[in-house]
Write a structure and sequence with these properties.
heterodimer, A: 100 residues, mainly alpha, Helix Hairpins, 3 helices, 0% strand, elongated, B: 484 residues, two-stranded antiparallel sheet, 1% strand
Amino acid sequence: MPPTEHVLVLALMLFCVGAVGVLVRRNIIFILLSLEFMMNACAMAFIAAGAKWGQPDGQVMFMLILAIAASEVAVALGIVIQMARRFRTLDVDSVSELRE
Amino acid sequence: MTLADLWVSFPLVVLVGGTLILMIGVSIVRTHKLALGLTLLTLVLSLAAHDLALENIPAGGYELFGLLNVSGVQVFFNALFLLGAIVTALFAYPYFNERLERCEEFYILLLTATAGAMVVAAATHFASFILGLEILSISLYAMIAYPRQSHQPLEAAAKYLVLSAVASSAILMGMALIYAASGTMAFAELTLSPESGERSYFLLGQALICVGIAFKLSLVPFHMWTPDVYQGAPAVVTGYVATVSKGAVIALLIRYVQATDVLSYDGVFYAVVFVAVASMIVGNLLALLQTNVKRLLAYSSIAHLGYLLIAVLVVNSARPELVMETILLYVAAYFMITLAAFGIVNLTSEHETEDNEQLEAYTGLFWRNPLLASILTAVALALAGIPLTVGFIAKFYVFAAGVEGAAWALIWALLIGSAIGVFYYLRLIYTMVKEVQPGATALPRIGTQSVVAVTVLGILIVVLGVYPTPMIDMIRSIVQASGF
């Protein structure tokens, strides 16, 4: 088994990849993909931490995160479909009527 | 599971059971009135069930399944959430009845969001924390986007969804790192033994959780989403987002801070001080420029949460019962004022497709609708913290807690922020007493129950400001009974 530190660092790197993706991508679908990246990086860190302590809690949190990410994406895709219908675009920059 | 467990969790059981009944009911008969009735019944029953719960709660709070801890303080927060949801439901009925064909599902979301808020407020474990937070947030996304034919709510929901999901991931990553460093996820056991070499993980984890919570509370510099979401969401939902979702996170924050003693780390403490000062100053400064009432209230809420953070920051230097009293009082006052404010925005804009949110729309409101204008005046004065309103009592308590904790930099920020604040709140009142423009449209006929709700809130704001003793006594006895 690889040392816990290595897995945690990998998880943090994946988390950062996701965060950068949310910041630079302009297509809402890719933003949602990047969010999945961040969530799954957290899940991986939990697995590593649970293995380190020899407890099942890490895996329980993993399943919770799966459920949370799935329900979040379900609502998100509903909003994306409505956006595509009303705005005729998936580009978040061109969807900005709310401003000062 | 013992019988006492059941009684203590009964309010939550009633709320979730009511949600299921409503869900089935809506799929059989679609009647807006019936949906509203069932919702109100569920909320009132859940409120009444707290009476049963209280009988079974010992002084230090009742530990439920190792995930939740219900004490008198939690019951107070729950009562606020339920009352907030009742007011929101009353506002929502006329608002959606005019605008949408299908409005029944809104109430299901309202009930699930309230259940999420109750779980968050009672959480003592990372699992219940994140689960409650997500039940609350995911319901809110759908509530914000509910009028899905219009552009603005959709945009607001998309923005809120992305930023809130980022905040949740940050919180999750923080939890994972803390778990890796400490081997437990219960708040009370989260301490770092000094010899373990994992201090960096632990502190990074705490920092990530703080960032996530600051996002949810819309504190500077994580406040960018607030004005857009407040403006884009329907006024009914904005009031709910501004009160119940913030209140739940505040309840969690104070419990987290007390259980884990995270503010005893210098780095975390000064970071939170910076966030509090920045929120008070930046929130008020940005509000000065606003001509949109919803955005103005958004910046004002940023500043108010900055004030509230003072009470959290002095948790180690002031008496714990004073800190708790301050927080309960401030949150209760903030709930009344904010719900009344968004209630009025909502009442003045019925029958229109977009909300009536530009400041000019309030010109001469005193001459057109004296009742609403008087309530809005009370609200503005209470937000500014002028004496004889409940806002003053709340701010006074924060001030007292800050003085007792000797947090002088925070007190200065509070004073400067409040001074700036008075300007734009008074400008709102000034706009209302100005002469009516010729050609201004008459106010629409408005739903009675919403007017009653807003009037009651307005009366409470003034009466509890003039004679706050009953409320202070009640909060004091709750805090003492909870063992502070």
